[in-house]
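RECORD TYPE: inverse folding
INPUT: structure tokens
STRUCTURE:
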């Protein structure tokens, strides 16, 4: 681990000030990615700014037709939230499927989407539900937020404060997980929203993406059979020791069908 300066932020404004004053600072939420990177000497920030004491970044509340979740809210808190379980059970199920108990009790919503790991679960839920990412400077639509592998629309000095999820008519999430890490080899989140059907895929490509062919089929008939025979192209998908691009393409259809089955069963 390289040497760095440690700071504990007391508020979002304090964190932003410390971030602006440092040469090359990193924000730390749950630390599930950053601490590992520091230990492996894959990251060498000049400063680490710990957000865990910032109370304004925590909490879940139902606000009209949406569920607002603070950036520092842990996966375990989302999975156990009565509001989330009632309003968007698929989102609670997604959170419950992340990692192991330690990861779920330390990892956070904001940290997950800011890191934008290609195999992370939350990006699929954020994109499929048409969520809005709130920062200390602006609001970013889900479709504009995820820009590439480990890349987002966040600008220097920008801190995620919360994510607002519009309540869907129904939704479901299914993933084929890596048996060791429980990361998604392929995960598919399907949502029937007020603005139509949205299907978001994680794990299969360099970044979360939508599948228009699946969305069109489900818009005509929201059933598992409607997507059973749709073929997804393997071009551009990830291929590694866990699964080839062709197998991932096959899994997109399989997981989409399972996600729809879950959505229609609730």
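DESIGNED SEQUENCE:
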């Amino acid at each position: 681990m390289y040497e760095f300066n440690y700071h504990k932020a007391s508020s979002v404004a304090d964190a932003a000030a410390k971030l602006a004053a440092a040469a090359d600072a990193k924000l730390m939420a749950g630390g599930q990615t950053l601490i590992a990177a520091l230990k492996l000497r894959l990251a060498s920030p000049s400063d680490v700014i710990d957000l865990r004491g910032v109370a304004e970044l925590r909490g879940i509340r139902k606000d009209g037709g949406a569920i607002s979740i603070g950036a520092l809210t842990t996966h375990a808190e989302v999975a156990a939230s009565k509001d989330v379980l009632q309003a968007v059970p698929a989102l609670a199920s997604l959170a419950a499927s992340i990692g192991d108990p330690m990861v779920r009790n330390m990892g956070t919503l904001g940290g997950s989407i800011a890191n934008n790991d290609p195999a992370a679960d939350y990006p699929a839920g954020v994109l499929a539900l048409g969520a809005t990412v709130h920062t200390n400077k602006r609001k970013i639509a889900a479709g504009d937020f995820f820009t590439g592998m480990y890349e987002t629309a966040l600008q220097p000095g920008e801190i995620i404060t919360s994510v607002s999820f519009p309540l869907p008519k129904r939704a479901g999430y299914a993933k084929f997980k890596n048996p060791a890490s429980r990361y998604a080899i392929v995960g598919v989140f399907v949502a029937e929203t007020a603005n139509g059907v949205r299907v978001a895929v994680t794990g299969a490509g360099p970044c979360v993406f939508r599948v228009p062919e699946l969305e069109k089929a489900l818009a005509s008939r929201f059933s598992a059979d409607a997507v059973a025979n749709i073929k997804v192209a393997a071009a551009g998908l990830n291929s590694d020791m866990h699964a080839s691009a062709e197998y991932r393409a096959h899994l997109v259809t399989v997981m989409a069908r399972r996600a729809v089955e879950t959505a229609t069963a609730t």
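NOTES: Residues 1 and 39 are 5 Å apart (CA to CA).
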